């Protein structure tokens, strides 16, 4: 089961280290060197980045990209702050807004998941036909989720904190109690639960119920945007091309790279995750890949600010820039 972080950690460390030491950014080949930190171990949910690297999309645009694999001990904001990496993957919109709240000099330059893959999972036949039916039922949530999508659920569906139960990234408590609801990613936990429990769970994608968050955002320090905007644009366009190829073309190069980086991954998990990303429109179709809008960010900020997560007068627009949005692939 995945263990993605839902909140930006070490923000003060980011601010304290926001003047990284100068570093060489040109490879001996003349390509611009960029280090990319992902937000988790290699998986289909990162397939566009791996595909862009494996198929040469970065190289053909003048970039020499090195991928730094994420995991439970990897703090993407800290890696950006110290200059250890040039680009980081931001898992969700709260991470981006948290950085802006702390005046961290970094921006989201593209969103490679138009829908946050976050779901709530229920047992079938228990009268749960929508999110509203979950009110009053126990819900297994990770600690960081309390300050992320739970904020939206309480605002829209009037869920109460006394519904929350500790989620330790095991589905055993869910499988043992048919009343329990569990968090997960549409691309991961439902498939694993079905395999383990021999029963197809009821799955509810928050994004299809109005949750306005983006996911898998490319985070870039302000100094790189100022110093080499052409490299930032090239990275965004190459990654968009990688996602289109991975989802709608031949995914074998990306899958091979993922399996090499993460020996615990299996082909069946990759295949079903890719199918889920297509069927649910997680990444989007041609013309949508990588896109963001002021209206969407404003909607997200209003929900969070109305719940007291951010000051209502916060300049949330410093969290992102629309100047590097990719052209239709």
Q: How would you summarize the topology of this molecule?
A:
Elements: H1 11-16, E1 32-37, H2 47-54, H3 57-60, E2 63-68, H4 76-82, E3 87-92, H5 93-101, E4 106-113, E5 118-122, E6 139-141, H6 149-157, E7 164-166, H7 172-176, E8 181-185, H8 189-197, E9 202-205, E10 215-221, H9 222-227, H10 229-248, H11 252-261, H12 267-279, H13 294-306
Parallel strand pairs: 1-2, 1-3, 6-7, 6-8
Antiparallel strand pairs: 3-10, 4-10, 5-8, 5-9
Helix pairs in contact: 2-10, 2-11
Give structural notes.
With 329 residues, this protein is α/β, with parallel strands linked by helices. It is 36% helix and 16% strand. It has a 5-stranded mixed beta sheet with strand order 2-1-3-10-4, sandwiched between helices. A 5-stranded mixed beta sheet has the order 7-6-8-5-9, with no helix packed on it. Helix 6 links the parallel strand 6 and strand 7. Helix 2 packs across helix 11. The longest helix is centred in the last third of the chain and has 20 residues. The protein is globular and about 60 Å long. The two termini are 32 Å apart.
Distinctive features:
13 helices, 329 residues, alpha/beta
Biggest sheet record = 5 strands, mixed
Report the uncertain regions: 5-10, 19-25
Q: What radius of gyration results from the CA coordinates? A: 19 Å
Provide the helix percentage.
25-40%
Mean pLDDT: 91
Number of strands: 10
Strand order of the largest sheet: 2-1-3-10-4
Distance between the termini: 32 Å
**Oligomeric form of this entry?**
single chain
What string, H for helix and E for strand, traces the elements in order?
HEHHEHEHEEEHEHEHEEHHHHH
The outline comes out as globular
Total helix count? Answer: 13
Structural class: alpha/beta
β-strand percent reads 15-25%
């Amino acid at each position: 089961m995945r263990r993605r972080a839902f909140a930006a950690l070490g923000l003060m460390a980011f601010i304290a280290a926001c003047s990284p030491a100068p570093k060489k950014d040109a490879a001996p080949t003349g390509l611009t060197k960029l280090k990319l930190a992902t937000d988790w171990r290699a998986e289909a949910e990162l397939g566009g980045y791996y595909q862009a690297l494996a198929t040469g999309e970065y190289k053909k645009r003048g970039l020499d990209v090195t991928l730094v694999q994420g995991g439970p001990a990897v703090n993407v904001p800290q890696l950006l702050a110290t200059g250890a990496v040039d680009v980081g993957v931001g898992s969700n919109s709260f991470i981006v807004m948290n950085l802006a709240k702390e005046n961290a000099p970094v921006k989201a330059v593209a969103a490679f998941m138009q829908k946050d893959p976050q779901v709530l999972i229920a047992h079938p036949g228990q009268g749960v036909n929508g999110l509203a039916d979950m009110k009053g039922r126990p819900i297994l949530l990770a600690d960081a989720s309390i300050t992320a999508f739970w904020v939206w659920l309480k605002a829209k569906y009037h869920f109460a904190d006394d519904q929350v139960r500790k989620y330790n990234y095991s589905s055993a408590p869910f499988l043992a109690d048919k009343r329990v609801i569990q968090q997960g990613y549409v691309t991961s936990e439902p498939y694993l639960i079905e395999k383990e429990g021999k029963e197809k769970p009821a799955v509810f994608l928050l994004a299809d119920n109005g949750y306005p968050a983006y996911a898998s955002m490319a985070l870039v320090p302000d100094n790189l945007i100022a110093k080499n905007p052409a490299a930032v644009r090239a990275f965004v366009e190459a990654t968009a091309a990688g996602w289109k190829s991975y989802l709608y073309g031949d995914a074998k190069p990306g899958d091979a790279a993922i399996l090499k980086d993460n020996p615990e991954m299996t082909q069946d998990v990759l295949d079903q995750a890719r199918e889920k990303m297509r069927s649910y429109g997680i990444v989007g179709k041609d013309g949508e890949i990588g896109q963001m809008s002021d209206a969407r960010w404003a909607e997200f900020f209003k929900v969070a600010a109305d719940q007291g997560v951010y000051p209502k007068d916060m300049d949330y627009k410093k969290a992102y820039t629309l100047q590097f949005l990719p052209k239709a692939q």
